[in-house]
Specification:
The protein is about 25% helix and about 25% strand. The protein is of the alpha+beta class. Strands 13, 15, 16, 17, 18, 19 and 20 form a 7-stranded antiparallel β-sheet that branches. The two termini are about 40 Å apart.
Length: about 450
Amino acid sequence: MSRAIDVAVIGGGLLGLATARALLRTGPDLSVTVLEKEAHWGAHQSGHNSNVIHSGLYYAPGSLKARLARAGGEEMIRYCEQHDVPVKRTGKLVVATSTAQLPGLDALAERGRANGVTVRRLSRGEFAEREPHVAGVAALSVADTAMTDFGQVCRALAAELTELGAELRTQSPALSFDTEGDRTVIRTPREELRARILVNCAGLHSDKIAAAAGDRPTVRIMPFRGEYAEVRPGRRGLINNPVYPVPDPELPFLGVHITPMLDGTVHVGPNAVPALAREGYRWRDVEPRLLGELLRDPALRGLARRFWRHGVTEITRSLVWPLFVREVRRLVRRSRAGTCDGTAAAYVHRRSRRTGNSSTTSSSTAPRAPSTCSTRLPPRPRRASTSEQDRGRRLRATRSRGRGPGRTRRVRCDLTAPPRPTQTPPPTSPFSAPPRSLLFQR
C-alpha cells in the first residue's frame, strides 16, 4: 500500500516525537507519520538514561548548547507538570574532592552564573550538613537541576500526538528510500510512504539513515556505552541529592556520579566505554560491520591517540568491578553504619546506558539497560578439615542463567561462617563491594 503524506519522522525517541509535536502545533493541517523500528517509544537512548534535566551549568556562556539547555530544561519541567509526568527540582551538588579541584569548581560557578543558572558555593561544613556522607573540601550547589522519567515523557508525547492527528507506527523500520519527483519514498514492512519532507531523528542510526536517503553526512556515529551500579537498598538513604564530581575539562563526560532516582533507587555511574554495536549493551554484543568501519576510521585513531590513557582506564573499570567501586568511594565518606556481617545479604545491581558520539567531536546523552558486568567467582576452596566442617565454614557458589539475548545472569557467593569474634570488621563505604555476599545482575 502506498500513501502520500506531508512529513515522515524516522525515530520515535524524545527528539522524533517532540519534532512531530512541534510540526503539528505549527501546522495543524499537516499529515505527519512517525516511524519507530522498536515495539515501544523511547526504546533506546531516550528511555535509558539518568533521567536528569540538566541546568546548562557546563556549557560555554552564550553558546547554542547553553541557551538550549536553559530554555529546554525549563520547558521540559513545565511539560511534565502539565501532563502528569513525575518531575522534581532536586538540585545537585558538584563536589571538589581535593584542593587541586578548587580552581575548576570556581570556574564552573562563574560559567553557571553567566548562563543564568542558580549556583552557590558551599564550604565543607555547609555541604556536610546537607550530605554528611559525601567527602570533599568544597561544593557547588546547583538549584536548577531536576529529575523526571523520560520514558514516561515519550509516552505522554505519543498520546498527545495521537490527539493532534499524527499517524504513529511502531515496529516499522525504514528499509529503503527512493525519490519520486519532489517526494521521498520510504519503504517499511507494512507500507510505502511518499513524503514531501523527511526528518531524520534515528539516534545512533542517523548517519546510516542519512546515507541511505541519499545524503553524504560529514560525521559518523561512534557508539559509547555507560554502565551504572545501583546502591544496596539498605544504604539508599545516605545520599539525598544528586552528587557530581568536578568534571575533567579535557573529556566530554561528567564523570562517575551518584543520582537518587524518583522511584527511590540510587544509581552510581556512569563510566564510558566503546560499544561494539550500535545497540551494544554488553561486551558480547558485537556488530562486525560496525567494528570494521570503526577500525578503518581515521577519526577514531586520532581519538585513541589523544585519549588512550582515559580509554584504558574506563575499559579496565568496566571489566574489573572493584576499580569502579574505588572511583565512587572518592565521593563517599567511610562509615560503619550497616557494615555487612558474615551472613548479611547485600546487593549491587549493574546496569548500563549508552551514549552516542560522532567519531569527530560531539556527544549526546543516552540510554541505560541491563549491562555487561565482569564477575569473578572466588577461588575454589581447599578441602575442609573435619574441625573446619564442625565450625560450619563452607563456601557455596551457584549460578543461574537466563535464555535469549536479554538474559539475566546472576552470580551469588555466600560465606556462611560467622565473623571471628576477635576481629572488628573495618569501616566500609555504602558503595564499597560487600565483603561477604554479592548478587550481580546483568
